[in-house]
Amino acid sequence: MENSNYNNYSDNLKDCYMCSSIVECNDCMYSSNIIQSKNCTDCLSVKNNTECYECTMCNNSYKLLFSQYCDSCTDGMFLKNCIGCSDCICCVNLINKNYYIFNQEYTKDEYETKKQELLAMSRDLLLHDFQSFSIRFPKKFTHAVNSDNILGDNLSNSKNCKYCFAANDLENVAYSFA
Fold this sequence. Notes:
This protein is mainly beta and 178 residues long. It is built from 2 helices and 13 strands; from the N terminus they run βββββββββααββββ. The chain is 14% helix and 40% strand. A hairpin with a 2-residue loop joins β8 and β9. The protein is globular and about 50 Å long.
């Protein structure tokens, strides 16, 4: 631990502050359950992210803001259940898309113009618009990757698990939270 005060249940940190359950992180603040991330603030359960703010269950992402359940996304804000997206704002359930706003495709120039308009709005108003937009889309029953016969959420590489949450590589386990 180097220059990392007020952290709890953490290991191999540099310049981190007020975090808990984090491992191998640099310059992170006010976050919990994060692994191998840099410059992340107010994040929960993220792995291998850089420059993210208020993200939950996002992995391998860069410059994400206010996003949930995203993987390998770059330069986005208010994303939900997106994979491999870049330069997207207020989008839900997209895979490998670029220059989308509210799930509508734009050219790069149109996107930049519309982005500036959205950034001029207050965050609370944009959040309200995104929440109203996102409730129209189907929700996943569970967020699981490479898992069979499970009852729980946020699992990967798991098998025969009952009421298990936020864990990896479990087999024949019940009532567990990582």
